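Quick one, tokens below. Sequence please?
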């Protein structure tokens, strides 16, 4: 926003900070519990940031809608209305993410198991911080706006006769309007107007609804066919550190020995007398038969 009062830069920054706190809390708890930190865990903060920022936008949008509907309501009523609108959506998305990653801890790969533990726990902390820390930030930002305070310095923005002689640039930066009038609460967001007046009536047209159903059916059919073509497999070099000896080993193995097919190993699961010549000849005979 161009308004120096309605600008929500600090609000957005605190939303990102909330995701960062979730990452720090999760990593600290997992390290304290002795869960090994592997290189794949380094990707977790990007996932948490995406979900945390999404929850932030949902909370801000619900707060602004509540503020427009109940302009004279108390802060408690506005916050209650915001949670009533946003908490369900945030809870469901967090729950599905947490379940998905905690199910991933059943894998046999230790590195994937660690990644799922770190990320799933971070999602839980992200939810907690969104419902507590960010809700408090919303209230503080609302009080700043109600007090007509600047978004950066939090100093009260006053408009008087002495401002009439100031330049347009000064008034735009310090008042929020070149007209030398105090900035007023903005109306409905243009994106909300677009979905309400244009996209909503368009998508609810009966012919468009039929087209959407047909497109979804084609998408569903393609997805089912794609699932039947999926083959399990994983490149083990992706589960090792960049400087691990495993990576050049797999590179050389693929370069020099890939034409011979998979290795076949013979494992003797019982104790035998290797010093007995008859036993040794029997083992060699078994290996020759397999060859």
């Amino acid at each position: 926003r161009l308004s120096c009062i309605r600008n929500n830069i600090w609000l957005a920054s605190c939303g990102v900070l909330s995701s960062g706190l979730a990452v720090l809390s999760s990593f600290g708890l997992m390290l304290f519990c002795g869960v090994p930190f592997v290189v794949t865990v380094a990707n977790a903060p990007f996932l948490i940031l995406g979900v945390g920022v999404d929850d932030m936008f949902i909370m801000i949008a619900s707060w602004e809608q509540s503020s427009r509907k109940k302009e004279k309501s108390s802060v408690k009523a506005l916050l209650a209305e915001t949670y009533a609108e946003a908490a369900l959506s945030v809870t469901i998305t967090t729950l599905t993410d947490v379940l998905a990653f905690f199910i991933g801890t059943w894998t046999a790969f230790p590195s994937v198991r660690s990644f799922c533990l770190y990320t799933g726990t971070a999602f839980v902390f992200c939810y907690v911080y969104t419902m507590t820390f960010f809700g408090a930030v919303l209230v503080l930002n609302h009080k700043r706006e109600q007090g007509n305070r600047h978004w950066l310095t939090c100093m009260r923005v006053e408009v008087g006769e002495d401002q009439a002689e100031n330049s347009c640039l000064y008034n735009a930066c310090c008042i929020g309007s070149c007209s030398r009038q105090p900035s007023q609460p903005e109306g409905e967001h243009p994106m909300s107007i677009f979905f309400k007046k244009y996209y909503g009536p368009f998508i609810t047209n009966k012919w468009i609804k039929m087209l959407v159903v047909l497109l979804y059916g084609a998408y569903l059919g393609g997805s089912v066919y794609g699932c039947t073509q999926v083959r399990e497999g994983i490149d083990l070099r992706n589960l090792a550190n960049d400087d691990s000896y495993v990576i050049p080993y797999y590179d050389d193995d693929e370069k020099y020995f890939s034409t011979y097919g998979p290795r076949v190993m013979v494992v003797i699961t019982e104790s035998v007398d290797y010093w007995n010549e008859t036993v040794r000849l029997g083992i060699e005979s078994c290996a020759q038969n397999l060859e």
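Confidence is low (pLDDT under 50) at residues 178-183. Residues 195 and 201 are 9 Å apart (CA to CA).
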